[in-house]
User: What shape does this take?
Amino acid sequence: MISRRDFLITLARLAATVGGAGMILVDPDWQRFLLGGDSGLAFGGTYLDELVSSAPKARYWTPLTIKGDGYSPEETIVRCLLCANGCAIVNGQRGRCRTRMNVNGELRSLVYGRPISIHIDPIEKKPLYHYLPGAAAYSLATAGCPLRCKFCQNWEISQASPEDHQVSFTPPAKIVDGAHANKAPVIAFTYNEPTVFTEYLTDISRDAKKQGIRSVLISCGFMNEAPLAEMCRVLDAIKIDLKGYSEDFYRTACGAELRPVLRSIKQIAKSRVHLEIVNLVVPTLNDSDKMLQELINWILGEVGPDVPVHFTRFHPDYQLLNLPPTPVATLERAYNMAISKGMHYPYVGNVPGHPGNHTYCPNCKKIVIERQGFFITAMNIKDGYCKFCRRKIAGVWT
Assistant: This one.
C-alpha cells in the first residue's frame, strides 16, 4: 500500500518529467498542505527558482548513492549532518528545517544571505544577562527551524519556508556594516533556529571579529557536535533553550529529542564561549515540581552553579492558545528551588519589574545589576567583582 505522501511525490516527479521543465509551479501553501510541510519538493514560483539556482553548497552532509534496479535510475540521496534530525533527502526535496535542499546530489542552503528579519535589540532581550549588559545587539534571522514547538513565540519566522519571504541577497559584510553603522557592538543570531543558516552565521562572525564586533547565538541546541564546534570557535556567547527535562515532553511538544540538547549544553560549557540557559515554563506541560527539580539538578551537576538560568513566562501563542500565561507563582517556585539547591544566578523572565530580574551577588546577596524590563538601572559590578564584597561575578562585562 503506497502512502498518500509517496503517491504525491511520485505524481509530482512524473508530471515534471512529462512537462519537460523539471519543476512544477504550485502554490507553496498548497504544497505544504498536501505534503505536510516537512520536506517540501522544489515547487514554487520564480523566487524559489532564484533561491535554488543561487544557493551555495552547504556544509555538514554526506552523499548516499542508491543504485538503480533496472526500472529506476541511480539516485543520490544526501544525509544532512547539521542537526540531530539527520534528514535523508532525495533530489529536489528538503530536510525538516525546509532550508537545505538536495539539488542534483548536492546539499545547498536556501537561506544563505537571506535574512527575513533584522532588528536592534537590547542584549537583555535575548536574554543574556551576564554578557555585556546594556549592549545593543544587531539581531537577524532567516526562515526555518528543525523543531516544531507548539508553543513557539516566533512561529511566523521559525515555521516559515525561505520562499515565503522575498528578500534581496545580503552578503555577510553588509550585516557587519549594518551593525557598525548602528553602533551595535554585538551581532545576534536569533528569532528562528540559527543553526539552519550556520554557513552564513559563521561567515558573518568571522567578518565581524575583524571589525571588533562580537557575535552571539540564541539556539534550541539541537545541532550536531561538529557544526557546534565550528560555531564555538567564532562565537562569543550562546544562549540555549532547555525546554524541559523530559524526552516525552520534547517529542510531543517540540517534535524533537532531549539528549542532543543536553549534549550541546555540555559541549558549550567546556568551550571558551559564555553560556546562559532559558527554560520557558509552560503551564501543564513542563511546570511540575519533578521536571523543574530534575532540570535544576542536571544543570548543577553537569555545568555548575555559575551558569545563568532564566525561568521564563509563557504567553499563549501558535498552537497553544488554549493555555493561560504562566502564573508568576510558578516561576517564583522554580526560582526558589534553584536558589535552595545552590544555583547562583537564576532569574524570573518575562515578568517586567519582578525582583527576580535583578542579578544578586551569591555572597552578600546585594543587587549587583538592577533591571527595569530590558534596561539596566544600576550597575554594581566593577572589573567583574561585586562592589560591596568583592566577590567575583560570573560573566563577561567588558
